[in-house]
Design a protein that fits this description.
Among the domains are: about 10-110, no CATH class; about 125-250, Intergrase catalytic core (hpI Integrase, Chain A, Orthogonal Bundle). It is about 45% helix and about 5% strand. The chain has helices spanning about 10-15, 20-35, 40-55, 65-75, 85-100, 105-110, 125-130, 135-150, 155, 190-200, 220-230, 270-285, 290-300, 325-330, and strands at about 165, 170-175, 180-185. Strands 1-2-3 form a three-stranded antiparallel beta sheet, with no helix packed on it. α2 packs antiparallel against α3, α4 runs antiparallel to α5 and α8 runs antiparallel to α10. The chain is extended, with a radius of gyration of 31 Å.
């Protein structure tokens, strides 16, 4: 644990790198005015600060060769298999260069190829072990609520008592990712557990009280709960708190395969699919008759004689529709099986 006398990365950069404090305050103001995520800004600023501490200069004063050398060393680090350090460094530098108006340097940074990985999924027996392991009621309720409602860790700690509606069986999640609200269902089983937890713990304002300055529980605290709980189980999978959000995958039928769309039906071709109906409308003939349109759409001419294939069939007389008496006979009891 970091001692109180030690300085953070941002504090060291403000003290040792000239001009970093001004950049920090300007970027923070732009983030607040633009409504962007505060956690994302902190990740970017921390990576920018590490670059500044490495060369004792601001990123715009560092040459492109030095920037490439620094990013190469990050990409080759064995301690970061997911390349998160490299990813946040690239995104942070792009954000910085666009902030100061150097869009060309932002574009010249290396592009990141997205890694395609399958999620780690709990099976039924592992979930039973995980939810039985916690000794404290608060920890058990936190894990089961995150699993049942598919919550993110930040969403769980931001829940207030007023967000739980036991009558409507809903949970109101406010200002989550991308500043959006949403309503998720509250199961009967979790509702019973929450009532028991509230009557025993008597939380105030927040559903999960903690040692944060505003009285909330912390994200680190939730991560500690899942780590300590996993130690009490036989689960050997590389899982985290976010793995509980895959709450529907373990109940799918066996040998289930998710259907993915490619080509024109893929999610990347949404704009092209929007243009297709308009293009089809422009190709439709204005003076097209009903018969021509039916033939064009069905590729079958029902007006053509099926014998000679040349003559045209006309409607001579339309017979009246006769309803089958079966239903009426069943209802009156005159017909039985």
């Amino acid at each position: 644990m970091r001692k109180k006398s030690e300085f953070t990365i941002l504090e060291r950069a403000m003290q040792t790198v000239p001009g970093f404090d001004k950049v920090y305050h300007k970027m923070k103001q732009q983030t607040i005015l633009g409504g962007r995520s505060q956690s994302t800004l902190e990740n970017y600023l921390r990576r920018i600060a590490l670059v500044c501490l490495e060369y004792k200069r601001l990123p715009d004063e560092i040459s492109e060769e030095e920037t490439s050398e620094y990013l190469t060393s990050l990409a080759q680090m064995s301690k970061s298999p997911s390349r998160s350090s490299f990813k946040h460094a690239v995104y942070g530098l792009r954000y910085y260069f666009r902030h100061i108006g150097q869009n060309k340097r932002a574009i010249d940074l290396p592009s990141l190829r997205k890694e395609v990985k399958l999620p780690v999924i709990f099976n039924r027996s592992e979930l039973r072990q995980l939810f039985k392991a916690p000794t404290l009621l608060k920890h058990r309720i936190a894990l089961t609520l995150i699993y049942s409602a598919g919550l993110r860790s930040q969403e769980a700690i931001n829940l207030k008592l007023s967000d739980i509606d036991f009558e409507r069986k809903t949970i109101h999640i406010r200002q989550s990712k991308y500043k959006k609200d949403r309503i998720v269902p509250l199961s009967d089983y979790i509702a019973q557990g929450l009532k028991k937890y509230i009557s025993a713990e008597h939380p105030h304002v927040w559903l999960f009280n903690g040692k944060e300055p505003d009285g909330r529980y912390s994200v680190r605290g939730l991560s500690w709960i899942i780590r300590e709980t996993l130690k009490k189980t036989d689960i050997t999978k590389d899982v985290s708190l976010h793995s509980l959000r895959r709450f529907c995958l373990h109940i799918l039928p066996r040998r289930f395969v998710k259907i993915r769309h490619y080509g024109i039906l893929s999610s990347r071709q949404k704009e092209l699919r929007k243009k297709l109906p308009q293009a089809k409308r422009t190709q439709t003939k204005v003076n097209e008759s009903a018969r021509e349109r039916i033939v064009r759409l069905t590729r079958f001419d029902r007006f053509q004689c099926p014998f000679c294939k040349a003559g045209v069939m006309h409607t001579v007389e339309q017979l009246p529709r006769i309803r089958s008496p079966g239903n009426a006979l069943y209802k009156t009891g005159r017909l039985s099986v």
